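Retro notes - structure team

What went well: the batch runner handled both jobs without manual restarts.
What didn't: labels got mixed up in the shared folder, which is why I'm recording both outputs here explicitly, each with its sequence directly above its tokens.

Job 1
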Amino acid sequence: MNRGKVVVRPARPTDAEAIRTIYNHEVLSTTATFDLVPRSLDDQRQWLGARAGAFSAIVAEDPELGEAVGFAALSPYRERAAYRTSVEDSVYVRRDRAGEGIGRLLLEELLDVAADSGFHAVFARIESSGAASRALHERCGFRLVGIEREVGRKFNRWLDVALMQCLLHERQRPTTG
């Protein structure tokens, strides 16, 4: 998918360094992820290698830069068999590209991938003060279904998680044209 200044496409092994750079900034500087230790390039390659088939990763590539400026992925929601039709999403955009609509392009495409893969529900676990991420998910059809109180600790403070859910059969897919 090509919309404006970025192309959304499946992630490739060569995207590992750009994804790692985006993700590690969030690890070190924000509560967007509860990871506390930056990923090595080998860790990132392994993560990307595990994102195949239904649990895929996509990137938003800036053709002028020739590199990913954002990425999104699906992961299993829980290990038990009854949860197999549910997945969890992750969406990250390089901070200097925030506000350009890249997150929405990624999330809309990721939801299409989830629906095309036969999933029923997509969950987002967002640190509760993450207003931009919560608003993005709401614009893409997610609804708040709960708050998990003080489930994480980062930067010497307790963090709550907003649990948001999108039932794919209720989602209105964006129209083109």
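Job 2
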Amino acid sequence: MKPEETIDFPIRKVWNRISRMYNTEAAKYGGSMAIGQILLNIEPGGTPSTKLAPKMGMESRSIVRTLQTMQQAGLIKREADKADKRVVRIHLTTKGKQMRDVSRDTVVRFNQAVQSRFTPAQISNFRQMMNELDRILEQEQLF
């Protein structure tokens, strides 16, 4: 089977290009795609650190180093939850909110540019296929 005939090759190829594009844009502001993604997933009232990675479809240990980098850069602060001191919430600083706005604008611009090149039916079909692929991977043992 040629790579072009597989399901995963075009997904990986396109994702790598998207990732490079986002990283190139984020580097202009001293960030990265990973930092931008985290910034976009922190809720206004703070997000428990244990909920952040799963919210983004990742393992918690995958973002520990990035969170430390973000805290050192002054983008986030960690605070104990007022109701449950065992829970640590991640909050955006003023600098983090500014960087989140840049990240949001970049994501919106990219999506508008891509969506303008496809019909609503094509976008709907793409979303349906990706949702079904995600469901298959989540619920089924393929090997």
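One thing worth noting from job 2: The domain at 3-139 is CATH 1.10.10.10 (Arc Repressor Mutant, subunit A).
We'll revisit the folder naming next retro.
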